[in-house]
Amino acid sequence: xxxxxxxxxxxxxxAQIRVRTLRTDRWWLxxxxxxxxxxxxxxxxxxxxxxxxxxxxxxxxxxxxxxxxLATSCPEGARFLGLAPFGDxxxxxxxxLILGLxxxxxxxxxxYRKAYYRSFWLSPAACAVQEPHGKYTGxxxxxxxxxxxxxxxxxxxxxxxxxxxxxxxxxxxHTPTGxxxxxxxxxxxxxxxxxxxxxxxxxxxAGRLNHFxxxxxxxxxxxxxxxxxxxxxxxxxxxxxxVMGADLYVRLVAKGIIAxxxx
Length: 263
Prior knowledge:
This protein is about 50% helix and about 0% strand. By secondary structure, the protein is mostly helical. It has a two-stranded antiparallel sheet.
């Protein structure tokens, strides 16, 4: 019986495909829409951070991008629990002081990584589509190794979710018939669905348990989180646009563009 060694001339070479992909469908549409969606959020976020119309006295509406407001430059009624630990940070917009917490959580999110890797870096743009990069190192080197701190941003996201819920309840208590109160409340709910559906949250609740039967409460929590996790992509987009929409609505009311009874 004759054995063929790995170096034998008869060994076949891998087929060389010179075209980028053999797909004939509109594979580019999904990364393009993702690029446009994330870009619109980034552009709006930069504008909102430097916009000063983020609080509506009386109705107690505060724009989510500027909450919690923790500087003395914030209007007195807009300060979270009346606190101003950041002091006289007049040179910086209030929203910029807390931007890193929700921003870092979304930036390191497992779903958003896939979204912007494919849409911004084309790594790869779609399945069965050759990427333009000649080398792949994964998330083992700087700066992508920083993605591993996602679990810590999750705890910060819990605090932001609690703050936005407080803002919504406060607005609802002062203006129960105002459309803005309900918009803020729906936004807080979607933020919670996205945050609690996080893969890190699923792991924390019961991801390391070997026997679910010995931890019934944690198992129930894990089951609920797993249901949210199954729709993590949908909640990621829904909460992205809800927080942007709620923020814009409050600013339009603050500018007088939208007035009662619609507010």
